[in-house]
Amino acid sequence: xxxxxxxxxxxxxxxxxxxxxxxxxxxxxxxxxxxxxxxxxxxxxxxxxxxxxxxxxxxxxxxxxxxxxxxxxxxxxxxxxxxxxxxxxxxxxxxxxxxxxxxxxxxxxxxxxxxxxxxxxxxxxxxxxxxxxxxxxxxxxxxxxxxxxxxxxxxxxxxxxxxxxxxxxxxxxxxxxxxxxxxxxxxxxxxxxxxxxxxxxxxxxxxxxxxxxxxxxxxxxxxxxxxxxxxxxxxxxxxxxxxxxxxxxxxxxxxxxxxxxxxxxxxxxxxxxxxxxxxxxxxxxxxxxxxxxxxxxxxxxxxxxxxxxxxxxxxxxxxxxxxxxxxxxxxxxxxxxxxxxxxxxxxxxxxxxxxxxxxxxxxxxxxxxxxxxxx
Length: 375
Fold this sequence. Notes:
- The protein has helices spanning 9-15, 39-53, 59-66, 70-77, 83-104, 116-128, 139-154, 157-183, 189-199, 202-213, 219-222, 225-245, 247-250, 260-268, 272-298, 303-325, 327-330, 368-371.
- It is mostly helical.
- It is globular, with a radius of gyration of 20 Å.
């Protein structure tokens, strides 16, 4: 039987040693990050497209969007991908950051739509029905139309639909976050795990990794239990890492969106230090599962799927590296009028997991990942 998170708080606190109070814990990730060799050229081209699109309302908005280092993020997820397709990935990611800053942010300062679900419907329909005008005719809508047109030109119908479904899933997660924030609801740990996999853009990023690599993976392989579990685990680990790494960014903000540490502290009525240890324990158990399941799944995979599985590892490692050095996170906006070039969060590594237990953690929405080890 899986162990419950409540029953392991004390154990987690004792095994997650080395976490400074209020600081970043060391991260367990025995996968090396890699980046596409054309990353700087891709970044320059993406920024030129952004400037020509007119999506920024002022120089500060532009600076904070570019401080996302979205081109580097894209180039770390698919470090051997096609340059033109990675350029599209980078441009999509910058565009989504702009959308997040104005419409999807759960913080009170965002000039966001009061109806994220309605926005999501219009945005997804703009992908599925080009020229429908569902987002209007402003710079953001025109930029999206351009992205859709160029993405359709390099993808087949299956890959494009996977991308559209990824956007739909991301916006579903954003609507879930907004609804919780609006009602003052702190979700359960099991619900939070499922919601964050969507909210962090897991399926969108996975679709673009496949597009960037230029190989359409058959559905019976991509949607098999083990590969689905690996994809979800990748997004969940990245979400956990984002929650830990964005703590500095959110410390002075009155954000309404809870992170994993707050969720665990609320539902288990424990201290923030205990909740941080429990979050790290949960994250590292997922990381251990990912490594075991990826190794097993890769044995029977063809070349395209093996490359995809390799890039799931690059995604986890790259997300940590990117988050550490992106000024958007390393020099938070509530503390700085503009991003600070060269700022870092000071990420360190640990040689082994904070919690190496091999079984599922007792969260109904993700325990099925561990079942895939037996398939």
